[in-house]
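Suppose a colleague, Dr. K., hands you the sequence of a protein chain of 273 amino acids and asks what its three-dimensional shape might be. Before reaching for any lab equipment, you can write down a predicted structure in token form. Begin with the sequence itself:
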Amino acid sequence: MPRIRKPVFAGTFYPQEPDQLESLLTSLFQSLSKQEPLPSTKGLISPHAGYVFSGKTAAYSFDSVKGLRPQTIIIIGPSHRVPFRGISVFEGDYYETPLGKVAINTDLVKKLHANNPLICFLDQAHSQEHSIEVEIPFLQHIYSHPFKVVGVVMGNQDQESVDILTRALLSECDKEKSLIIASSDLSHFYKAETAEQMDRKALDLIHTGEMDQFYKDNTTGAIQCCGYGPIMVTNNVVKDWGANKCIERHYCHSGGVSGDFSSVVGYGSVVYY
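The predicted structure, expressed as tokens, is then:
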């Protein structure tokens, strides 16, 4: 029997019915302003909230890579519900969404597990984690060619874990056939004006590649990215793969949808090329 990671957040974060989900994704991409194509995109940052809040920002990220044909897509997210030490790479055969199944690159998963003792598989780290799941329907929408995914959840986002995962991905991935996604939102539950200031600082540090300061500011609370570890890993890997530039495609926060500007969550789209 194949091991399948079933969709847990269909019906809450995004529509459960396939036709409704496909229609929503189509409308999100149609709502985007035209973007200049980028050469040889290697990675991106995409938010992972409910599509009503962050779907358009996520669509900007995925729109930038729709012309590519990656064979393996590595999605790295933080652990929101289960604290654990290390890095958990999902061990299974498929991720399933209302749009169908996506195969997992089991060969790469095995290589990553063998690379370092801190890279393991912890089922509970994935069973109720949304940061990987919500990115997959976007991939199913933009790609008609066969591709495989690898889902990585970081329990620790410290410098050691960032370095371990960076080295493992550089060692085991085929850079010519891979795309890497950092799944992360930005600031959480600040007044809109404060959130915008914090998020601008975070996005500026991502743009300049100042990862030491980015890490420090996240750990001290000067900025707040729930997936700062995945962002740091993605930054490190894509630079080694030859992506020496990045561009911010879109920014917004939840207040624009909810109308509540007293407590918002920020979302950013960044593409590395």
